[in-house]
Amino acid sequence: MLDQIININRDYESSVSSQVSLMFMRFVNVCIKTDPMVLVPIKISIYGKETNIDDVAQVAIIDDDNFCIIPFQESHIPQILESIKLSHPEFSFDIQRITEDGLKPIDDNLEELGENERKVLIITVPEVNEDRRDTLNDACDVLYDNCKAKTESFKVDYTQRMTEATASFPENLKKEALDMLKKTEEQNTNLRDTTYNNKKQEIEEAYQRYLAKQESKANMENDNVVENDETDGGSSFDMSKILS
User: Fold this and answer.
1) Is 225 exposed, middle or buried (0-12, 13-18, 19+ CB in 10 A)?
2) What distance in Å separates the CA atoms of residue 110 and residue 112, rounded to the nearest whole number?
3) Rounded Cα gap, residues 21 and 100, in angstroms
4) Which of 45, 100, 112, 224 lies 20 to 30 Å from 26, alpha-carbon distance?
5) What is the DSSP pairing of strand 118-124 with strand 102-105?
6) Tell me, what's the pLDDT at 227?
7) What pLDDT, on the 0 to 100 scale, is given for residue 244?
8) Is 172 helix (H, G, I), strand (E, B) or coil?
């Protein structure tokens, strides 16, 4: 009798949690800043065999906007680049070289790398401007709504199963069985909604960082204009010319 109740609740938990986990993984791919988890699902085709990125390269984070992919073999850079492009066409890519002085560009005049230099792949995550914020929010809403619809469907389905399975049970056991389902539902609903709200907050924070950068850039440009005006000796507009 109790085994039947436990089994139904266990199946419900498995069904609902798998949808919440799937939503979480899809949220990871809604990439806002550098996160190694973004690259985990990507498969690299090497000599016709699918392999994980950490089997062919080391992934390093330069800052919130840039990954550095250090291949174990430089000949694998094209395959790594192509695979990441397929999953994240929004990223921008650049091949640079690691030197003793840090990252350096590879120019056309460079015939060969130095003794301790090696080629690496720099991946840049685009900034979250207003258009991208809207796109990211829309994507999260779709993923959340899809997860919610499926978990709500599971709730109806498993409530019916539990009700039918306990039809002949005493009233107190019927209530305990439905309470067990309700507790499972509440736990997963809370996790689902928290995950969604955290992602939305992450998007908004990234947008605010973008705005702060733009404001800082504008202030620097204004400071340079003022400095140049002072240096140029009267190139700024002079109200006295009108008032005299």
Assistant:
1) exposed
2) 6
3) 42
4) 45
5) unpaired
6) 58
7) 30
8) helix
